[in-house]
Amino acid sequence: MAVEPIPFRRSPRPTLGVEWEVALVDPVTRDLAPKAEEVIDIVQRDNPEVHLEKEFLQNTVELVTGVHDTVPQAVAELAHDLNVVRDAAEQLGLKVWASGSHPFSDWRKNPVSAKMSYAEIINRTRYWGSQMLIWGIHVHVGISHEDRVWPIINALMTKYPHLLALTASSPGWDGIDTGYASNRTMLYQQLPTAGLPYQFTTWAEWESYMHDQGISGVINHTGSMHFDIRPAPKWGTVEVRVSDSTSNLRELAAVVALTHCLVVHYDRMIDRGEELPILQPWHVAENKWRAARYGMDALVITSRATDERWVTQELTDLVDELAPLAEELGCLHELSLIPEILERGAGYQRQRRIHEKTGSWLGVIDATCAEMEEMVPRD
């Protein structure tokens, strides 16, 4: 049987789009509130220009930017949209909140959105699929040709722990401290179509793989593959889905800038005829686990020879290495926020400090709600 081609909508420029999953919480109980549809209806009535999507859970609103050329443009749109969503939530007596996962909400009491594909996921995955009280950031970067997609994805996988450590913000789950920086990462990979992508080398290999998934019925069940980094042929982009959802725009801006710079950096390496970095699949998997477990304290594998460095050292050097490119792309300020995160601590570290001091997750929710309102990208 012939393999059906997957058209890739080539992007002449490294354009940028961002999807940010945020949730609604009750300011009294601090529990999740399944009111996303009502919030979206208010926004569509009063601000129809704002692009919001319903997500897997009825407590979740996804903010979706248009196509932009720079990180500041995308973040400015998100800032506007967040204000609109916050105003709508306040009309319902709710607050907007974001992290990789909620530290104590009961997944059994959080209804799924009324969408057939979501119901099918639950029907197929049962216990594991029902637990997905998790939120992330998806960054799309335009790619000029499909032949570049998988070499760039494979190179990005060498920086998986860097992107995750910066944003890890899900230490709590079901009322306990899991000991992980990103419990979201561990939860999400339980879904049969999620997790690390295979290291395809050509677009034809990806087409053949997706052909097999169609024959086996996987695509019929899920609609798509939910890899941590994947092609988005409809948009002509690589979609990076590694990061936990940040509790503020400032840290979101930093990780979006890093993602944009890395994709363009690897694309330019192809232009220069240089070999892109790649790690053995077992090293990529180990790095993912180390970042999920240890976050900013992760010792990560940096070469095929199994050299190792602290992820904080790696991030510091990355900022210096990518600074000229970031200036060219108009996101030097945002990339330069990374040392600030290293000094302040990632989201999971701030949450854990509050929980260890108070013995309660309620203050954690209050603090992350406050960050949503106070930590704006620019001084």
Automatic annotation (TrEMBL):
Alphabetic keyword roster: ATP-binding, Ligase, Nucleotide-binding
Pfam families: GCS2
Catalytic activity of the protein: L-cysteine + L-glutamate + ATP = gamma-L-glutamyl-L-cysteine + ADP + phosphate + H(+)
Coiled coil residues, start to end: none
Matching InterPro entries: GCL_type2/YbdK_subfam (IPR050141), GCS2 (IPR006336), Gln_synth/guanido_kin_cat_dom (IPR014746), YbdK (IPR011793)
EC number: 6.3.2.2
Domain of life: Bacteria
MF GO annotations: ATP binding; glutamate-cysteine ligase activity
Biological process per Gene Ontology, one example term: modified amino acid biosynthetic process
Keyword Protein biosynthesis found: no
Enzyme class: ligase
Protein family (similarity comment): Belongs to the glutamate--cysteine ligase type 2 family. YbdK subfamily.
Function: ATP-dependent carboxylate-amine ligase which exhibits weak glutamate--cysteine ligase activity.
PANTHER family: GLUTAMATE--CYSTEINE LIGASE 2-RELATED
Protein name as annotated: Putative glutamate--cysteine ligase 2
